[in-house]
Amino acid sequence: MSLKPQPDSLVPADTLQVAKAAFAKGNPYVTLHDELGPIFEDGDFTELFSKVGQSAIPPWRLALVTIMQFRENLSDRQAAEAVRSRIDWKYLLRLELTDTGFNYSVLSEFRGRLLAGNVEHLLLDKLLERCRELGLVKAGGQQRTDSTRVLGAIRSLNRLEVVGETLRAALNDLA
Asked: Where is the Transposase InsH N-terminal domain (predicted)?
């Protein structure tokens, strides 16, 4: 996969209108987008992708999905389904309401690239940096970020899901 950086995008008008109506009393992901703005940029991930080949899903989106996936304790399959079906996720990811998302295997591949490139720390470091810029975290305070814990927890969830799918397939074969 190759990375072809794209200009910053805005939340599509229809997604904005529906999200604001649906979450008039607030939503964590809508607030995250509105208060923090862009956290990641394609340029943060250029060293992880080739310059030629099929275009990759914007890595800034996959980074946000990974953080939301950890927050909600979701497997890759469940996170990909949330991208397809949830208005708040589409809002934060700046996707059209009609966007069909991506195959769940892309998330595992993305995490593999983060680890192989030794840039897994980027996930939480960039988020913390943005919070500091906005004065949400004390500049002099010390914050711990451990992205490997985030990636490990997601990997464990996916392994559990694979075991469940294997058991289901075995029971179906026996039936």
From this structure: 25-113
